[in-house]
Automatic annotation (TrEMBL):
Cell compartment(s), UniProt: Nucleus
Pfam families, per the entry: PHD_G2E3, zf-HC5HC2H
Protein name: G2E3 ligase
SUPFAM superfamilies: FYVE/PHD zinc finger (SSF57903), Hect, E3 ligase catalytic domain (SSF56204)
Residues annotated as domain PHD-type: 1-115
One GO CC term on file: nucleus
The gene coding this protein: G2e3_1
PANTHER family: G2_M PHASE-SPECIFIC E3 UBIQUITIN-PROTEIN LIGASE, PHD FINGER PROTEIN
Organism of origin: Uria aalge (Common mure)
Gene3D superfamilies: Hect, E3 ligase catalytic domains, Zinc/RING finger domain, C3HC4 (zinc finger)
Organism phylogeny: Eukaryota, Metazoa, Chordata, Craniata, Vertebrata
Ligase recorded as keyword: yes
Pathway membership, UniProt: Protein modification; protein ubiquitination
Amino acid sequence: CVLCGRTDDCPEKYGEKRTYVAYNLTVHYYCLLMSSGIWQRGQEDEGVDGFLIADIRKEVNRAAKLKCNICKKKGASIGCVAPKCKRSYHFPCGIQKECIFQFMEDFRSYCWEHKPVQKFSDKESRGTSQCTICLDLVEQLPVYTVLKSPCCKNAWFHRECLQYQALSAGIFFFRCSVCNNKDKFQKEMLRMGIHIPEKDASWELEENAYQDLLQCYQHCDIKRCLCKKGRDYNEPDSKWEIKRCQCCGSRGTHLACSAMKSWEQNWECMECRSILAKSGNYSKQKKRSLATSEKTDGTTCLLEEPSPKCPRQSPGSQRSFLLQSPKIMCQNNLSPCSHRERPASNRVMMSLSPLMSNRNCSLRKKHLRKNRREVSNILKELKLQVNTKTTRLNINAENIWNSALKGFRQRNFNPTNTIEIKFTNCKNRSKTDTSAASKHHFFQLLMLHLQNSSLFEGSSAKNLSLDFQAVKENLYFEAGKMIAVSLVHGGPSPCFFSKTLFNCLVYGPENVKPALEDVADVDVARTIKMIKYANSLSSLQSAINDCYEFLAAAGCLRPITSLCDKNMLVNDILIHHVIKRIISPLESFRQGLKTLGVLEKMQMHPDAFSSILCHKPERLSAETICDLFTIHSSSDVNKVEGADFWMGYLQDVESGESVVTLEDILLFATGSISIPPIGFDPEPTIKFLHIRYPIGNRLLNCLELPITKTYDQFKNKMEFTIRNTLRVERE
């Protein structure tokens, strides 16, 4: 290795040793990562994983002048980052001397004297316990070779065991082996020098690793099998194809033996059917993670059962939720008893409901703002992938979809390049709009088109629709890709996803239960309502007969023996129509959203991304605009008076005492009518200058405001300039 001088080839300790014959260069990957004077200035496919060959040579020359404080030989490329510490060493020497190397952020290194250590309270017992990976004994001591779990009190590990597990599991599966905590555990292990590679788990990459699981049950278990070729005979796409039980998968039937017209029809074996009948609603709820539950007294409860990725609500917390939720309070109106007949507790709840509602609204807004701040930070992290190389898209605003599709599909398009927009149908736009403003306008038009396109269905909260031509042309993939690129490149978010669509993307369609509101087709919704609200077995049978062809085509025909069977039938129809019917578009859409790592972050931070994908952006307020802009002024300007005029003007605009709106002010300054999820880059600023009229510098997101003697002068100049500038642009 040109950096440490060793010939060892030990990937677990020093990283992969790579030799480049063309450059006469051999280097350990970890030696390269941890070297203090080199950065990844190239693309991933340039040099050695982005480290340019010329930069590596310079680093070797720099290190040749430094002596290792451990082996006393030259070539020490790694230095301790502690202030005033001048120790340098080779990577293998640092490992031997128990230095800490942090494989994150700036790839910091700490010498044996300044390295971070885990804190142990005096109350903790000192003894031995089992390493939960290798099961050998480990001493409970704060030493380099031993690490303690940050999330489990009595979980101890050998450092070497943890490192091997991290290399095998990768960033997606490395977690505490006791409690399965991922975020807290990974953060602490990275701090203590465990390298967690950004790759999939080794068992996921192994070829045919799950081959044994692909053996399907192929046997007809019906009491009277009609197939002359025997119970084990299976002929796909015929009436002798074997269908397995949808619940257990360990029983089967020929389609003809159970009088099934289509393979799409659901079928349960006798054992599973009897279990479902005995267990009633409880088993149905356990089977689906987002099912609505029913209270024992028969009244509907609006609480959703939590997703398997979310913490389950404790029994004690249900009462407090009932007190807070305005939705559940209004269920009291459905009770057959009058207001006087209601219990006192209900009357108190009713009287408090407006106050509770306002409080809940305020808390909900606060929670949304917090999640949107979190999303902004996540998107800024993803934007670090974007380089300075530009890709120009020529866009026709009157035909936004086709021109965008053409641009995204062009051979040189790369989502990691900086995108530059040129509107080809507007000769004057290049004079009035900066690159950033044009880009935001383009993404805004694109998101609006997607919202109203045939790819989605529904009124405000939309699900994917089934458009065979769009599937054929792979348009669902392109739509997902466009949304991901818009989010990372500073465009708006779609804001129209339904909760069902979002949950399908994040948790997988198999873990989602759709609701009647997700059905956009009026005829299908009417059919479901007929079945759902049937109040007798005869009316239920009549409703099923009326829509027999639809149920058969959907594969939802099932034997109905009692009125409660309608719930399972309704559930089957909803799952077929909202999810199974569009499974191909959904998978294509998911693949598109993987662009730039957006889907992965959505799955890691579902609450945060739900705030921008399922909710419309918060209406602009004077407070929001005031917080958005940072005020700068020269020394000869009265900053306080200028700020007072500015804030007073914002309040006038918000209260309607102005001819312009807050959106107009934002558009004038930044070229955008809303605040993008990622925020503005650069951050918007205000300058008070000795000028006649305000100027909106969209390239810098800077609002240059005139210094005036009175507030009326300030207001008149603002309104005259903003109104006329925007009018000219619209024309």
